[in-house]
């Protein structure tokens, strides 16, 4: 008696095949790579990216910075209070609308950003990508992120 062969069931993707896991684990690894460099400066990665965002555009409101960093206010407010206590950020009520708090870097905050850039240069090479590959990968990740933001909002 011959047995008819049934098609094999489709197997579920393995963890290593999940794009979300690749991005998640890459993010964790970036954190580990940045940690010793940022420890020399006395800041965490999240504090560092807040300083970078303010260096690019000083005078943002707390909500604008939250949108830029994809952080909720319950995460951002304690972070900003810590940066203020460290003497890196100033928080001031907006004169035109006192409901808004404007953020600016202190001279120490600007210096920290410059020191971090010098220390982090080897991390670009550690990624193992050419200059063009680095930019193409960054653009691809941004496209995925932005598409997901739009899908979640819809």
TrEMBL record:
SMART domains: HTH_MARR
Subcellular location: Cytoplasm
Coiled coil (UniProt feature): none
UniProtKB keywords: Cytoplasm, DNA-binding, Transcription, Transcription regulation
Domain HTH marR-type residues, every copy: 16-146
Entry keyword annotation includes Transport: no
Matches recorded under InterPro entries: HTH_MarR-typ, MarR/SlyA-like, Transc_reg_Sar_Rot_HTH, WH-like_DNA-bd_sf, WH_DNA-bd_sf
Alphabetized Gene3D superfamilies for the sequence: Winged helix-like DNA-binding domain superfamily/Winged helix DNA-binding domain
A family per Pfam: Staph_reg_Sar_Rot
PANTHER family: ORGANIC HYDROPEROXIDE RESISTANCE TRANSCRIPTIONAL REGULATOR, TRANSCRIPTIONAL REGULATOR, MARR FAMILY
Name of the protein described by the UniProt record: MarR family transcriptional regulator
Source organism: Duganella aceris
């Amino acid at each position: 008696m011959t047995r008819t062969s049934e098609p094999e069931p489709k197997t579920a993707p393995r963890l290593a095949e999940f794009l979300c896991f690749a991005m998640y684990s890459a993010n964790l690894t970036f954190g580990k790579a940045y940690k010793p460099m940022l420890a020399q400066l006395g800041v965490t990665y999240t504090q560092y990216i807040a300083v970078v965002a303010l260096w690019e555009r000083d005078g943002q409101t707390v909500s604008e910075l939250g949108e830029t960093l994809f952080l909720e206010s319950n995460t951002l407010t304690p972070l900003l209070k810590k940066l203020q206590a460290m003497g890196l950020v100033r928080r001031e009520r907006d004169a035109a609308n006192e409901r808004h708090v404007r953020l600016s870097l202190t001279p120490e905050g600007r210096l920290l950003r410059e020191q971090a850039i010098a220390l982090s240069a080897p991390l670009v090479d550690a990624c193992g990508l050419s200059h063009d590959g680095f930019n193409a990968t960054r653009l691809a990740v941004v496209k995925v992120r932005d598409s997901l933001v739009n899908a979640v909002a819809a």
